[in-house]
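Allow me, if you will, to draw on your knowledge of protein folds for a short while. I have a record of one protein: its chain in single-letter code and its fold written as discrete structure tokens. I should value your view on which stretches of the chain appear to form regular backbone elements. Thank you for your consideration; the sequence and its tokens are set out here:
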Amino acid sequence: MAQYDRDNDGLLSKDELENCPAILHRIERYDFDQDGQVSAAEIAKRVGELQKSKVALMPLGVKVTFNGRPLAGAEVRLIPETFLGEAVQSASGTTDKYGMTTPAIAADKLPADLADIRGVHLGLYQVEISHPKKKLGVQRLGTEIDHTDQWNGLRFDLKKGK
């Protein structure tokens, strides 16, 4: 909370959540009392729900488009929010000609028996998307990944000039 609660009222408003786009992106999963703000207890409750799923590593399809068209060669990095600690690891991947990637955690960050599996941990992530040739800069977004995303995947449509 200290990282995001600028007015020190113990709640995160939508304005304050601009600095935590992962929660803002899926605020309906965190704002249990539907008051338009998120408390530490609400965040803890939702993170607890993610932990209860007992999903350790999950394949995840990510599609990146640029102005509605598949973006090949984009580097996608999923960076866990720092408050999740060491248990949730970063994952990355490069999109193919269809704009698709299956991000993976570095093999040295996984137990030996899982090192060959492409997958991600459940959790809250900052998403960084860049491209070596397109002048996108680094697009910084956010998302929560839960077990339902295994079937739906994630989609990011980047717009020119944003």
Summary: The helical segments are 21-25, 40-52, 149-152. Strands lie at 11-12, 38-39, 62-66, 69-70, 75-80, 91-94, 100-101, 123-130, 139-145, 154-158. The chain has two domains: 11-52, 62-158.
